[in-house]
Amino acid sequence: MYILGKLKERVELQKLTQSTNSLNEVADSWTTITTRWASVEYLSAKEQEIANQLNAIISYKVVIRKYPSLRHNWQILWDNKSLGVENIVDKDDFYEIYCSVKEEKEAEIISQSTAGGASVSGEASNA
Fold it and tell me: Tell me, what CATH number does 92's domain have?
């Protein structure tokens, strides 16, 4: 069982909502449903480089008091990070929520120039 004193972080539980503008275009946005006290624990990070982009997927475990409306397609906003909810584990009066966030950074490209002498072409003349 979790001790309430360990829930020291403020998190927002958000769900995706759609709205239609005056041009009948549908826009997606995240809407905060509730703000809760939580414990946020770093679990792991995985990096990979694809098309000169360095992608880091960082995993967290977030513990909150039960909120029965919480769904897998929601996200948790914490420390200016949008954590995607992946798994919700029911632990008595609490939920353990396993989340991840993808961070993209431009990879540094190291180019090596080929070393060597300059080639000279010329014509041979016969005397």
Answer: 2.40.10.270
**Is 18 within the bounds of a domain?**
yes
pLDDT at 123: 43
Question: CB-based contacts of 94: which residues, under 8 Å, 6+ apart?
Answer: 1, 2, 63, 64, 65, 66
Residue 62 forms part of a structural domain = yes
The number of folded domains in the chain is 1
Q: Provide the whole-model pTM.
A: 0.72
42 has a pLDDT exceeding 90: yes
Residue 39's alpha-carbon distances to 28, 42, 64, 102, 111, in angstroms, are 28, 10, 7, 20, 44
Q: What is the pLDDT of residue 107?
A: 47
